[in-house]
Amino acid sequence: MKLNELTLKESLDKLAKKEIKIEEIYQDLDSAYQAKNSKLNIYLSHNDVALEQAKKASHKPLRGLPIAVKDNFCTRDLLTTASTKILEEFQPQYESTVTKRLLESGGILYGKTNMDAWAHGSSTETSDFGPTLNPCNPAHLPGGSSGGSAAAVAADLAAAAIGSETAGSIRQPAAWCGVVGLKPTYGRVSRFGVAAMASSTDSPGPLAKTVEDAAILLNSFAGPDERDGTCSRNKAPDFSQAIGQSIKGLKIGVIYQDIKELASTNQILVEQLQILRELGAAVETVQAMDPHFAIGVYTVVQRAEVSSNLARYDGIRYGLDRSHFGAEAKKRIMLGTYTLTKGRADQYYNLAQKVRTLYLQDYQRLFQKYDVLVSATSPSYAKELGASLDAAMFGELEDMLLEASSVSGLPGVNVPFYRDEKTNLYLGASFIAPMWQEEKVIKVADAFEKNTKWNSWRNK
Q: Would you call 70 a catalytic residue per the annotation?
């Protein structure tokens, strides 16, 4: 096995025992980067001094291991483009809180990964620098908007990665690439220094090879930040403490079983969830509020916040002028501005916020009985390249099962629950819990992962 194929935890353990050297990890990683990146279009920029930085971080918790970072996080030493030509040459003068804490913990920014431009999409096909290909099957999409980060993990081009989710942008690409994606509670992780998309739902989080890796990485950057007024002031727990814990006695509700277009996916999911019963959890089907309504809620709220957040890109302070916006950004700005205009706000935006509240209330009802809820992450396997190009609502439909939990601020994690042998593509399960209870989804996802055969690194 090449050392770049180790999980984050395996690498940390072997480095601590002096069984391997950090130079050996980077040697294998650099070889893989040279062989794969130009074909898959994962990294938009590469840190040429990563190894030298890693040698100086060997005494820190992450021991200098290479981490891929989505290109909407401000980084002082690497360009931050958000995959848009407007910011093609933008060099931030400050570090985002997430990457600053990552560096302080001994993680090294190996490079910045491709994404949907401005994080607008669920395919990585709206990137102004071309689409990323799915390492599991290059004829298919990696998902988005954190498609490059998910692909970096799947292709063993990073020990782990950082992404951001507004409504599925961590968990959906994780599902399509067969990796783990953890969306924390909204406010658990600082948004300072992240190119804002929808400020009321944006949530940075880890993508990793295993649930344990995701918990370890989240430990490095979660917690209060006085520079972000939406960030919780409560100290983050040690998420890795949930690893290896028993799930006996937990109550797990399986939702969205009545959605017709999920029939084949749900059949496989229900079969795989039997392992949770064998581990002592109570698993039963439960009726949840129809996720189709969340499509409209998310579309209206997100577009409205996009129209506000993109107003700052006027070509005066930095970047190119607004004529360089891509087609997707222009459509979202126009729709968002329209829904906020006088006479239309009550008809669209305010109504969407009321329905958003109904989802919050429905989750409160469900979590009175269940510790964790589970559904498929995405309706189907990764779509073929080009699938999003003529589909105006592509992302909203692919993220349909995640939008309700995202607009409600809930934590969730994707883990693979099936692989199609013919296509080598994966299906993912999404576990969600009440706000501030990431430990519950980590505990259940870890138990599922360790007792099934679908994690390609744990079962090599």
A: yes
**What residues in the chain have per-residue pLDDT under 50?**
none
CATH of the domain at 364: 3.90.1300.10
Which residue among the candidates 105, 169, 388, 408 is catalytic per the annotation?
169
145 is catalytic: yes
Query: What pLDDT score was predicted for residue 339?
Result: 94
Count: domains in the chain: 1
- The answer to whether the beta carbons of residues 434 and 367 sit under 8 Å apart is yes
Residue 340 belongs to a domain: no
Q: Residue 323 catalytic?
A: no
Question: What is the reported pLDDT for 317?
Answer: 85
| Among 36, 70, 383, 440, the one annotated catalytic | 70
Marked catalytic residue, from 96, 123, 145, 430: 145
d(CA 409, CA 389): 29
pLDDT at 370: 98
Residue 390 is predicted with a pLDDT of 85
- Strand partners of residue 451: none
The answer, as to whether pTM is greater than 0.90, is yes
Asked if the bond preceding 190 is cis, omega within 30° of 0, the reply is: no
Q: Are strands 108-113 and 66-70 parallel, antiparallel or unpaired?
A: parallel
Domain residues for the domain of 208 are 3-296+348-450
CB burial readout 118-129, b (16+ within 10 A) else e:
bbbbbbbbbbbb
Q: Tally the residues of the chain.
A: 460
Structural domain contains residue 325: no
